[in-house]
Amino acid sequence: MLERLNEALEHIEHRLDQRIEVAELARIAATSEYHLRRMFSALAGVPLSEYIRRRRLTVAGAEVLAGGTSLLDIAVRYGYGSGEAFARAFRAMHGVGPGEARRDGAALVSQPRLTFRLTVEGSSSMRYRVVDRPDLTVVGLRTKVSLVHSGPNQAIIDFVRGIDPRVLDCLEKLSDQEPHGIVAVCDDLDPSRAEGTDLDYYQGVVTSVEAPEGYAVLAVPAGTWAVFTTSGPVPGAIQELWRDVFTEWFPSNPYRTRPGPEILRTTLSPDKTRADAELWLPVERERA
User: Fold this and answer.
1) Residue 53: which of 108, 98, 90 has the closest Cα?
2) Which of 117, 143, 261, 263 is deepest in the core (most CB within 10 A)?
3) Is 181 helix (H, G, I), strand (E, B) or coil?
4) CA angle 4, 8, 14 (to 5 degrees)
5) Residues ≥6 apart with Cβ < 8 Å to 134
């Protein structure tokens, strides 16, 4: 999988001054567009579209400083419809406009080329299972939050803290299916996985019981799920689980992510320093 991702990265480098189709990149990587975006974001820490944009502006910046080509020609070459649009994007990345950069020889920001490598340590085995599930229903409380790539998501923290514990107790009594207990569910994520894009966040349960009035309901179609488990200090163990799933499990197994909610069940120790966690991700087998 990583070898194919690197082939897609090479394709990007040869076409920074052309239109780049995600469908073609997915074909090169031998996977779906959805999984390509998801894997790239997880491995690189930046959405695929943002990486392409930053690489283009890096190469364009070098041409701006080199001189010899008009700023408008550079703008058009790298896909900007006008000099003004190019100047805005250029300033957003480099902190200075292209004209000023050329005139004063300003220091610019560079987005390095990426290459993915798999480091095999062999220190632990990942605990997982793959299950086929019929339709399931999540019942609980819902809010709209923005995606945060690193660090805590304060909007989610504030939302959960604001829930009356008695409400959670009532919800937990409705739980009658795996994953059992109160779960955190992220749904309707933007395919780009760009920082700041919106998603639906649920604090609820998976249940066959009809939802009480006033609660949000998320109907999830039947499908295959990869279920990963871990135990350890919080938040480190959970963060490491997410990392290992995308850097070790997916590149080594014949599965890819598919659209659907991501479900996390966390059970804290009495002193709240450790946790048992179970992560459910919607998957499908890679096509041969």
Assistant:
1) 90
2) 263
3) coil
4) 140
5) 222
Burial classification of residue 178, based on how many CB atoms lie within 10 Å of its CB (0-12 exposed, 13-18 middle, 19 or more buried): middle
Dist CA 42 CA 259 (whole Å): 15
- pLDDT at 38 > cutoff 50: yes
Q: Taking the CB of residue 76, how many other CB atoms lie within 10 A of it?
A: 15
Angle subtended at Cα 237 by Cα 233 and Cα 238, rounded to the nearest 5 degrees: 125
- Specify the pTM: 0.84
Question: Across the chain, where does the E strand assignment appear?
Answer: 127-133, 136-146, 183-187, 198-206, 216-220, 223-233, 255-257, 262-268, 274-285
**What is the pairing mode between strands 216-220 and 274-285?**
unpaired
State pLDDT tens for residues 90-128.
999 999 999 999 998 888 999 999 998 866 554 445 689
Which of 49-63, 111-125, 242-256, 263-277 has the lowest average pLDDT?
Answer: 111-125
Instruction: Write the CB contacts of 123 (distance below 8 Å, at least 6 apart in sequence).
Output: none
Burial grade of 119 (CB within 10 A; 0-12, 13-18, 19 or more): exposed
Per-residue tokens: 12 = 């990007």
Q: What angle do CA 43, 52, 198 make, to 5 degrees?
A: 65
DSSP 157: H
User: Do 32 and 258 meet the contact criterion of CB atoms below 8 Å apart?
Assistant: yes
For 88, other C-beta atoms within 10 Å of its C-beta total 12
242, 238, 155, 148: which is closest to 195 by C-alpha?
148
